[in-house]
Amino acid sequence: MTIQPALEFILLAAIWGASFLFMKLGVPEFGAVSFMAIRTLIGAIVLVSVLLLKKQFKTLRNAPWQLFIVGLFNTAIPFVLFGWATLSLSASNISVLNATTPLFGAVVAYFWLKSRLTKLQVFGLLLGFVGVYVLMYPQLTSAPKETLLPTLAVLLAASCYGLGATISKLYLSNVKPLASAAGSQISASIVLVPISLFYLPSTIPSLTAINAALAIGILCTGVAYIILFRLISQLGPTNAISVTYLIPVFGIFWGVMILNEEVSAFTLYGSILILIGVAFSTGALKLKAWFDTKPTL
């Protein structure tokens, strides 16, 4: 990896890691639905502008209904779930829980696409979910009523991402990646903007909250996808998507530096278990052992 892609790789992880920070700053004042409606609308405007510049706008017509469904599961539903969870959970923990997305992707692929799993991949799945329990153990024991549902909401959001990835693989192979991203944001906006009219904030949000909404829409949605597709063209999809492993690092970093969140031993141990589990379950990390080569399920 040369210097420029490496810097863009780190920049993308930093931007996506900061999305949880912006949610913590904006959602309490806007509300989850309104904040995410603003995010998807701004993201759609940015990405559609790029499509027009690249003269790829017509590619949105290739699979409109498939794009709409992906927009629901890959954007609208998980965004709102993440937003609601930020009212109760720390940005650090949410960023780590978000890293379970590949675990759910592997489960969805197993049941839907009949993908075989090696014993090491199954072990990775179990290890990842053990990591979730370790990560959330202090909050689940001290305040279970306030923690359990938000935690499940984040995991449901991650599972939606896994489902959305499988749908994309099956039905959006003829749609350019940038058009797929734009279509997802457009579809989510079509759903969320009308609903947000019933959840408008009772008071005008502060400048901090407004800036957070603008930042998450422009940087974490529009610009981030543009960087991602640059990396895909330079490094290939597998290497580019490995940015997932760095996002929790920056999520924790921004939470500590900006929000003064505390990082406990449970956070560190849970994060390590989840990331190792994801690496095993996706095949990014392999052990030269017999159980890694023989399918078990």
Description:
The protein has one domain (3-106, 144-248). Helix 2 crosses helix 3 (64-85), helix 4 runs antiparallel to helix 11 (247-259) and helix 5 (101-112) crosses helix 7. With 297 residues, it is mostly helical. Helix content is 77%, strand content 0%. The model has no long low-confidence stretch (mean pLDDT 90). It is globular and about 45 Å long.
The largest β sheet comes out as:
none
Number of helices: 12
C-alpha-based Rg, rounded: 19 Å
Number of domain units: 1
Mean pLDDT: 90
Low-confidence stretches: none
Q: Count of DSSP E strands?
A: 0
Range of helix content: over 70%
Secondary-structure-derived class: mainly alpha
What is the H-and-E element order?
HHHHHHHHHHHH
Q: Identify the overall geometry.
A: globular
Share in β-strands: under 5%
First-last Cα distance: 35 Å
Short description:
This protein has helices at 3-30, 32-53, 64-85, 91-98, 101-112, 119-142, 144-171, 177-196, 207-235, 237-241, 247-259, 265-282.
Secondary-structure map:
Layout: H1 3-30, H2 32-53, H3 64-85, H4 91-98, H5 101-112, H6 119-142, H7 144-171, H8 177-196, H9 207-235, H10 237-241, H11 247-259, H12 265-282
Helix pairs in contact: 1-2, 1-4, 1-9, 1-11, 2-3, 2-8, 2-9, 3-7, 3-8, 4-11, 4-12, 5-7, 5-12, 6-7, 6-12
